[in-house]
Amino acid sequence: MKNKIIRLAFLFILFFTSIPVFAGQQLIEIKAGKFSYNPSTIKINKGDEITIRLLSEDVTHGFYLDGYGIETRAHPGQDGVISFTADKTGKFSFRCSVTCGEFHPYMVGFLVVRPNSTFFGFAAVVLVLAMGSLTVTLIKKRKS
Ligand SMILES: [Cu+2]
Predict the structure, then answer these.
(1) Residue 128 belongs to what domain range?
(2) What is the mean pLDDT for each group of 10 consecutive residues in the chain (144 residues)?
(3) What global pTM score does this model have?
(4) Is-contact 39 109, C-beta < 8 A?
(5) Does one domain contain both 100 and 87?
(6) Is the dihedral of CA 119, 92, 87, 99 positive or negative?
């Protein structure tokens, strides 16, 4: 009985301490040029701490992220840097916030924030282990 409690307590501690571990830090470089972003689609996980470095390949370009409402600008030779925590899942568009030429309105990219599947996978494993140890203990109890 004591063993079971210790095992369960250990699994719970493991579960909660792992939450920040699975949130990664990422530096993402985006090249902005007339009239597109490279890469134009970025995939990250919820909880990630993201730093975006925006580099201009020609004129001044902006980066405005819908849904998060954050912005930075890159001038030629002077990068724009912005950091944020990806706390909302979904597909968000980012667009140029500096009028840079005739096709400026079409300068759009996408940021996809996925649910943290690594974390959920790990949580599932912990849950299965907890259920397993509980079942084993119950079976042992019934036999004796
Ligand atoms: Cu622009």
Answers:
(1) 1-22+116-144
(2) 78 65 84 97 95 97 98 97 96 98 97 84 85 89 80
(3) 0.72
(4) yes
(5) yes
(6) positive
